[in-house]
Amino acid sequence: MRSTLTRMVKRDLLARHRRGRKMYFGLTARSTEVLRDGHDRVWGAGAVNRDWDGTWTLVGFSLPEAWRSQRHDLRSRLVWAGFGPLQNGLWIAPGHLDVPAVVAGLGLEDHLNVLRGHAAEPTEAAQLLHRAFDTAGIAERYRAFLDQWDRPDPLPSAPDDLARQLLLHTDWLQVVRSDPRLPAEHLPADWPAIRAEHVFRTLSARYDAPAKQLADAVLDTIPAEPAAGQD
Hints:
The chain is α+β, with helices and mostly antiparallel strands. It contains eight helices and six strands, in the order αββαβαββαβαααα. The protein is flat, with a radius of gyration of 21 Å.
């Protein structure tokens, strides 16, 4: 635990606040932004894209071989934003995506080519979708989520609803992390994401109140300190 907290402080994801002999940890501006982005991904967007206009956002890049860390960070950002690798160095995502916001802070703008366009014959949109994204793997992850949670009494071995709430959100975030919200018109009618999203939202609402009560009982908190320059 101590090692994890120290690492998160070094990465500017947590800030230390000492009160006597106690050490408290709070969010930084960066971690607040990360959590807000995750919140919007989980609650703001639906599991499938029903309003796609046929436009693709394309990102091409070529980084020096020695830039392994930068390449990993860029690919992680692209996956989270909904991109998939069409071919070597070319990633695509359905819709109009704000690429500058996706890659902000990486310092790689001079190594990227960003375009928007539509599929043209003989290539069809459905072909691009299945080439760039592992649709079978995405569907399987949703089915695994349903196997775990789509039942009257999920995880009876968990100690309480706070634990269930945490596990539920963790499992769901892992699923949507790899889901680019593919266009509904190119998905099977029984696409499992639709059912899985309903199960997630229903269970989250069920656990919300008891989980909050338990968290309030076990967490020792202090008022947040104002940011620099604020009263």
